[in-house]
Amino acid sequence: MTKVIINEAKIDEILNRGIIINTLPTKEEFKKLLMLGKKIRIYHGFDATSNTLHLSHAKNIMLLEEFRKLGHEVILLFGDFTARIGDPSGQHGTRKTLSKKEVLKNIKDWQNQIKNLMNFKDKVNPPKILFNSKWLAKMNMEKVLDLASNITVSQMIERDMFQKRIKEGKHIFLHEFMYPLMQGYDSVAMEVDVELCGTDQIFNALMGRTLLRKLKNKEKLVVVVNLMENPKTGELMSKSRGTGIFLNTTPEEMYGAIMAQPDEMIKVLFINCTQLPLKQIEDILISQNPLNAKKSVAKEIVKIIHGDKKAEKAEESFIKTFQKKENPVDAINMNAKDGDLLVDIFLKNKIVSSKNDFRRLVESNSITNLDENKKVINSNEQVKNGIYRIGKKRFCKIILK
Prior knowledge:
CATH architecture of the largest domain: 3-Layer(aba) Sandwich
Helix content: 40-55%
Mean pLDDT: 89
CATH topology of the largest domain: Rossmann fold
Number of domains: 3
Shape: globular
CATH class of the largest domain: Alpha Beta
Strand content: 5-15%
CATH superfamily of the largest domain: HUPs
Largest sheet: 6 strands, mixed
Radius of gyration: 24 Å
Number of helices: 17
């Protein structure tokens, strides 16, 4: 049997790092629970609506791992059933319905992406992976109606995104009302003590708290974590919108994507996505310039996701390609004149097949000016001297005459 570790200094370090921003009812109650020495069951749920996770998901899984290392039971719940319906959280319109095949393919990809974030090989207290179709797919109409009888329409309509849709004259479909009930029932089926959730999931998590109290006479704590946003712009990483630093990228791509982040994200990435002590992070931020600090955090994150050796190689590749401006071996040299459009030069040199092809690459953030560490976001952008990366493996070097 796993021994639960009661280490107040370690518990305080976890609770005060800044990733946890709220605990319902209180953070003091959560600390008290952790200090009891009793093994508690903590879960975090993910709906597999995309084929990749990003760093904001990774830091939640890393947080779960901290609780697991204290001896607690942690569960990664893959919403293979709920993903097919679509969580209305943060949505101004109804989500696209996914097939069972699409969801299971996404989950398979996710399992590969998170394999280094938790110790799944621990023989004593390994993290558990569960699927909510195990209980939700078995519910008949009688059970669904019985579950629905616990919540009123007025309670459900209070959700901020539903209120927004009503004001905008947009539809709210009945299955979207059912979603919080289903996610809430996950807590009942697993009889959890704690649910970890983002700020966009508070309503759903509290629904689970209500149902667990009504149906099992058990209290559940809700631990709310941040969504890791840019402190200046408020931009979030989102798997649905395809924005962020994704876990299915190569070590070199991940390192480069972190280096392309604005300077204000350096501290955010250090705190959320590394395991370095806060004092060490502050020392790095004070003693190093932004470029070197960004290289430090990029290497640390790639090391966690891909391992030490691949992180070393990713850093060497970045320094060689970007800092020393060495031309990648397979880069195509292209001549251009000042004022030429990038799309025209790409067409001339058969980098793209059409203007539509170029526009699709731009819209998917697939063209990067490596000299400036910036994505090409304008289809009418003019050429600049330097190296461009197209997609994952193609490079070209533009030389202005």
